[in-house]
């Protein structure tokens, strides 16, 4: 009940935002630049067949494959850096440097390498999403209590027991924090990849509609992209609550 009541201000703010948008769009009366929300929803329903049957599955495939690779690679690198100081010294600067290059500048290069296949978009998504997973997971592994580790070693615990009973529980909250950031960035990565080079996808469809000066059709796939990000964030939050019940009880 309290959670539902807490959503009240947010729902009211969103309602006011769309109400002001609707009124402003009707006052300006330039649909190709600023379509009203009702017009966008109408266009979304009108274009539901190509959007939901062709372009949405394409974007979802890019997002899910990119996220899966980012979780495996990001968590793996984080564990490697936590157990090897040499790996940490070699990889950490490279991981930071990878975020200094604008992804939008690299995306055309990936199109040259992989063509218009799904992998050019997946690479863009991975480059954007692996960073928060890697850094947060590594920080979580490093946050484990040194006193508890020494105590477990004194009691005869091996590296395997220390990892699964101490390091992993300490890292999980940080891992989920990074994953929540990554799922929202994955939508951006997929859209950027599709925007610069694709034959299908919500980003591609939005760019194609822009050349036709159809503002409502440009916004329609953007609404779906936002919905994907929200749904993925909620799913990760539910996974976090279910797997970290011990944190609430403690």
UniProtKB/TrEMBL annotation:
Keywords: Cell membrane, Membrane, Transmembrane, Transmembrane helix, Transport. The chain crosses the membrane at residues 60-83, 90-116, 122-141, 185-205, 217-236. It is found in: Cell membrane. InterPro entries: MetI-like (IPR000515), MetI-like_sf (IPR035906). Residues 56-236 form the ABC transmembrane type-1 domain. It comes from the Bacteria. It is a multi-pass membrane protein. Pfam families: BPD_transp_1. Its main location: membrane. Belongs to the binding-protein-dependent transport system permease family. PANTHER family: ABC TRANSPORTER PERMEASE PROTEIN HI_0355-RELATED, ALKANE SULFONATE ABC TRANSPORTER-RELATED, MEMBRANE SUBUNIT. This is Hydroxymethylpyrimidine ABC transporter, transmembrane component.
């Amino acid at each position: 009940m309290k959670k539902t009541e807490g959503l009240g201000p947010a729902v009211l703010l969103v309602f006011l935002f769309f109400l002001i948008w609707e009124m402003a769009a009707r006052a300006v009366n330039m649909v190709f630049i600023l379509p009203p929300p009702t017009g966008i929803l109408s266009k979304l329903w009108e274009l539901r067949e190509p959007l939901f049957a062709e372009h949405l599955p394409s974007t979802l495939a890019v997002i899910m494959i990119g996220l899966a690779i980012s979780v495996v690679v990001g968590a793996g690198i984080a564990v490697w850096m936590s157990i090897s100081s040499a790996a940490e010294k070699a990889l950490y600067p490279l991981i930071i440097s990878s975020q200094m290059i604008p992804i939008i500048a690299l995306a055309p290069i990936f199109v040259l390498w992989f063509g218009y296949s799904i992998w050019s978009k997946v690479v863009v998504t991975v480059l954007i999403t692996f960073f928060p997973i890697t850094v947060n997971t590594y920080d979580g592994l490093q946050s484990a209590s040194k006193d508890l580790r020494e105590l477990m070693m004194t009691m005869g615990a091996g590296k395997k027991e220390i990892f699964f009973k101490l390091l992993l529980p300490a890292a999980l909250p940080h891992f989920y924090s990074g994953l929540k950031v990554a799922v929202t960035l994955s939508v951006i990565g997929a859209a950027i990849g599709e925007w610069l080079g694709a034959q299908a996808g919500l980003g591609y469809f939005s760019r194609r509609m822009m050349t036709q000066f159809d503002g409502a059709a440009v916004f329609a796939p953007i609404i779906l992209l936002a919905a994907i990000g929200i749904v993925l964030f909620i799913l990760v939050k539910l996974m976090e609550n279910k797997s970290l019940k011990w944190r609430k009880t403690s």
